[in-house]
Amino acid sequence: MSDLIEVRGLTKSFGDQQVLKGVDFTVAAGTVTVLLGPSGSGKTTVLRSMNVLETPDAGLVRIGDAAIDFSSRPDRRAVKALRARSGMVFQAHNLFPHKTVLGNLIEGPVQVQKRPVDEAVADARALLEQVGLAGRQDAYPSQLSGGQQQRVGIARALALEPEVLLLDEPTSALDPELVGEVLAVIRDLAAQNWTLVIVTHEVRFAQHVADQVLFLDEGVIAERGGAEVLANPREERTRRFLARVL
Ligand code: ADP
């Protein structure tokens, strides 16, 4: 399997705090990578850097045939090209409150990608079915539960036809009873061979879906491996972290 994503030598400081100290990994197409680690270890910054929501100080990010070497200032066209390769799902879904579910789903495809409305609507309906919300297209976000809103958030990211889905703690803002339905949608995507990179504290979920686990600590990948790493960590700091969250 070829690598769809390549991240090399990623560094990032906020003020005098170096948050990423040289992060390297690759992701094969059709696989699930889970980023784990203590709060503040840099997981979100890695994910946001892949979508250029943060601009790294140095290092390379490649997704498919779009790449940026951040050692020089990236031009706007390169940023746009890299951004177009990934869809981002945030902790809070950020849906437009004044638009219906359907309106939220077709906004990007129609306004940004200039796709025909009827085509975007047909795709949006299929995506709603995929996330288990067929029939809710005319609802407003406030009429949906947090779990349903987050499922719309996932459908909205997919509507832009990205090559990769980046999910930043997609269940951490949800009431516990709503977590399962969102994880089930993510599990379905994994089964359909979507390429996913997920920041999550749901270690048991990670055990089920992860092809690759990256354990971040203080801005470096302290341990990596398959899902078995979670059961048998080699590094003391991974062990300590897992003992706390499991
Ligand atoms: P994690 O996702 O592992 O919790 P983050 O990547 O969110 O870690 O944050 C890593 C560190 O960078 C934290 O100390 C956080 O406070 C800091 N940080 C993140 N974003 C910013 C920002 N925009 N400005 C200043 N500091 C930030």
TrEMBL record:
Cell compartments where the protein resides: Cell membrane
Membrane topology type: Peripheral membrane protein
PROSITE patterns reported in the protein's UniProt record: ABC_TRANSPORTER_1, ABC_TRANSPORTER_2
Keyword Zinc-finger: no
Domain ABC transporter: start-end pairs: 5-243
Pfam families assigned: ABC_tran
Entry annotated with the keyword Zinc-finger: no
Molecular function via GO: ATP binding
InterPro entries, sorted: AAA+_ATPase, ABC_ATPase_HisP-typ, ABC_transporter-like_ATP-bd, ABC_transporter-like_CS, MetN_ABC_transporter-like, P-loop_NTPase
Protein name per the record: Amino acid ABC transporter ATP-binding protein
UniProt keywords, alphabetically: ATP-binding, Cell membrane, Membrane, Nucleotide-binding, Transport
